[in-house]
Each structure stands twice: as structure tokens, then as C-alpha cells.
Design goal:
- The protein contains 12 helices and 6 strands.
- The strands form 2 sheets. It has a 4-stranded mixed sheet.
- Helix 4 links the parallel strand 1 and strand 2.
Amino acid sequence: MRGLIPSCAIFGTITVATSAPPVWNRWDLLAAPAFATLAPLIEQLPEDHFPTLAQLNRMCDEREVVSGGGVPVEFVPQEGKSEEPYETRVHTRGKVLTRTDNWHDLFNALVWISFPKSKAALNRHHYKEMLAHQSAGKRGTPRDVLTLFDEGGVIVTSTEPELGTLLREFKWKELFWQRREEVVASMRFYVFGHSIYEKALQPYRGITAKTVIFDVPARELERALPQQLATLDARLAKYFAEPQALASTEAYAPLPVLGIPGWDADNADERYYDDTQHFRPGRRPAEEREEPKSGRGGNEPQRKGRKK
């Protein structure tokens, strides 16, 4: 790939997807807020060509990235069809299949390098769940949760807990417009999901992430970005070590990412947040919903999860 990513295809300019695939330009990526989390790595990538596996592996080796099984991670070319599951290959051999000149796989690699502990934790859980349900041949909610966040997760930090509550309660206009200055000063949004990065190349209204929200002290936002990421990486890995983290996909509050102040030029207009197709009203809290009734007259929980 060569040339430029059209500026019209980057968050902060328009929200309509273009038909032509974007091409490599490091400077456009660095200028877009959606890619800010990866900026320390993007700055090290070549200016004139798509990053190679050798370049990505060098960055990976420098940071001693390991899989969920403790094996050094290596980004390798897509091979022929294999019976070995993707997560098993990563866990036991450290081999992460990475297609050449492929944005989705590039962003996956960069997230591995940026959040090595968290990616290893997700891989470890995938592997354990696969072994646990091997005979039953089913996927299960925990793996749905892991995939949901791996592909579409955003870590949100806030020095004001009330702002995080507004996000959880789907109060988009109050959060992003009425309290806009507080959001800019007190909240940060770190993209984790590599599918969100890929969509950010050709953004459209409706891109929605799933969030993990952490309260942080104000001094945390003053630290250099690499230090912030290291702290978040350790904290997120610990978060996914808790059983409740894998209990339900509904525990992860949605985030319409184009609503984040500065991530789309159009959201500088108050009317932007009146679009209920983009900023959907939230579901009622679980305790307010009617309990599903079973055929035996009792109450049975309903498991929900996205299949991949």
C-alpha cells in the first residue's frame, strides 16, 4: 500500500464511509484523535510504506510480549488452512496470524504491543474456556465477552465518577454536550478493540464500542501516555481476572464513539446529539425489568451474547 489516507476518511472531519480502501499515511493517523492511543507506536512506523511483519516483530521483541501461555509472541504470515484454533496457536506457540498489508491485523498487532498483559489475559481465558467446553462443542458467554471487548473495546477513565455514571446510563447529550468541558478535562478514551481502529479509517455514524470504565485520580491524566497505558494495561488484565468480568456482555456499557468531543467535527453542534438512531436511549436497569418466567413457574436467567 502506498499514498495517503484521504483526510475526509478520518474521525474529526466527516462521518460517512468512503468506498475506496484507505492507504498508508502515518501523519494522517497521528493527526486523528481515534488513533491517539497508538501514537507512541505509530510514531515509530515507516512514513512511506505499510509496516512489515519484521518491523512489528522488532517492536514486539523490544517489549518482550508473551502470549497467555507465556510464549514470546510473533506475528507470522497467514498460512494454509489449519485445524489448530487461532487462540490455541497463540497460547501454546505465540504465533499470531497476520495478513500482509491488512489494517485489521495491523491494529491487532499494535494493540498486542500497547496492551501486552491485557491481550495475554484475553488469550489465556479463551484457551481455558475452549478446553473447558471442548467436549460440549459450545462457545459460551465468557468467550463472547472476550471477543466483544477484544474487537470493539474502549477503556474509559474519569476523574469524576459521575461522568462515568452518565455514560452507563446512556445520557449522551447530558454527558457530551451539557457537560462537555468536564468531559474534555476529566475523561480519556483509549481504544483497545482493533475493529474500532479499522472502522475509524472510514468512519460512519453508528460505530459503537463496549467500555470498561475506571475511576482515576486527576494526577493520572498528567502522566506521559506510555505510562498511562502501562498502568491501564495492568489494571485491565486484573479486571479480566475476576469471574464477574466474563459473566455477561451486557455489563459493558456501549459508547457511540463519534459522540466523543473532538472525534467528529459535526458534534460541535448541539443538534448532533438529538439523533436517536445514533445515540439510542438505554435499556432499563436489570432490577427494573420484568423477570422472565419459566414453564415451571419459576424465574430463569436468560443468557445473551454475541456470537462470532
